[in-house]
Amino acid sequence: MSTYPFERILLATELTEFDVGAERIAFAMAKHCAVPLRAVVPIASNPEYEAAAPQLSLREDQLAAEEIVLLRERAKAAGVELEVLVRHGTEAHREIVEEAKSTRTDLIVIRRRGKQGFLAQLLVGEMVSKVIRDAHCCVLTVPRNAEFWQHEILASVGDTPLAQEIAKLAGGIAAACDLPLTIVGIAERQDARSRAESLNTLYVALASALAKRVQGRVCDGDPAAQTNAVAREISADLVIIGRQRYHLLPFMHGKTSIMQKIIGANEVPTLVVPS
Question: What domains, with CATH codes, occur in the chain?
Fold first, then answer.
């Protein structure tokens, strides 16, 4: 088996029912790819609240400790050793990002979204969106019912400075997991078709230097819609894309990024590669 592209994986979990998919994928990745796994549990803290009601704060910590015991038991049942760290802070995403930075993590595994309330229209949860925005490393977003990839990998690669790195990373993952890889390019306009085909040939060559089974495809139209269509057609169970700038509250600004549309529409893990 080829060396897995990620050496330090960080599971970010709030120990809720919405985190079980991320936990399951992180355990499977650690075992299948023989890489160490750490977990960070961010707990919201408010100094004024804690000073006024210390017994309630203590109770929250006790409940978290009980859930962490269960998390370790689930990891052990999956055949994985798990180191868990609790971080207190006013914003969960900051604690996750800082933990990833301090431990030189190269992959954060996190749920796609949590409980839906006022922000129900979000394709990606607000906290998760902030982690993607601020993280220095790759972020794997995981729907609640997702399973570890075992069928095919799809990388959606465009005409960007990051494209060649995405192609090589996708090739490395496909090689390590011994899975076929499809690299899709999108021509949003008819006059862009020729360049999209040329770039797709280049990206396939880069990935083929690492993986055995790589094919390319160029589609015309909307990047998110075409990427999602190809993912469904080939039954991809891992999608790899590049990070983009985007609004955290797209329904207020009237803008939803290609990245958000891809993550939100697929019921499989999506790996977001930072610029």
Answer: 9-142 (3.40.50.620), 153-236 (3.40.50.620)
Beta strands in 95-145 (DSSP E): 107-111, 138-142
Output the CA–CA distances (angstroms, integers) from residue 139 to 77, 154, 201, 227, in the order listed.
25, 16, 26, 19
Q: For residue 235, is it left (φ>0), alpha (ψ between -120 and 50) or beta?
A: left
The SS3 call for residue 118 is: coil
**pTM score:** 0.90
Res. 116 pLDDT band, cuts 50 70 90: low
Contact 78, 27 (CB under 8 A): yes
What is the amino acid identity at position 267? Answer: E
Encoded tokens for 27? 């355990």
The pLDDT confidence band at residue 1, using thresholds 50, 70 and 90, is very low
Partnered with residue 85 across adjacent β-strands are: 40
CA dist., res. 266 & res. 275, Å (int): 22
Region 99-123: mean pLDDT is: 76
Q: Cα separation of 223 and 227, whole Å? A: 6
Whole-angstrom Cα distance, residue 270 to residue 230? 14
Q: Is the pLDDT of residue 8 over 90?
A: yes
